[in-house]
Amino acid sequence: MNIRQKIAQFAQYQRTMRELNALDARQLNDLGITRGDIRNIARGKTI
């Protein structure tokens, strides 16, 4: 993986973290996730 891909991957991680953290508990529950799941989801890991 080259540096451009790493930067793009990190930007996607940050965007996902920001968007999921902006949701309230009810919205997260509707998606079937908890606040504790957000980091793993942003990293692309399945829960």
What this model shows, in words?
With 47 residues, the chain is mainly alpha-helical. It has one domain. It has helices at residues 3-21, 25-31, 38-42. The model has no long low-confidence stretch (mean pLDDT 95).
Beta strand count: 0
Order of helices and strands: HHH
Structural class: mainly alpha
Mean pLDDT: 95
What Rg is obtained from the alpha carbons, in whole angstroms? Answer: 12 Å
Which outline best applies? elongated
Amino- and carboxy-terminal Cα gap: 25 Å
Number of helices: 3
User: Oligomerization state of this entry?
Assistant: single chain
Structure characteristics:
elongated; mainly alpha; 47 residues; 66% helix; 3 helices
Would you summarize the structure shown here?
The protein has helices at residues 3-21, 25-31, 38-42. The chain contains 3 helices and no strands.
Please give the structural blueprint:
Elements: H1 3-21, H2 25-31, H3 38-42
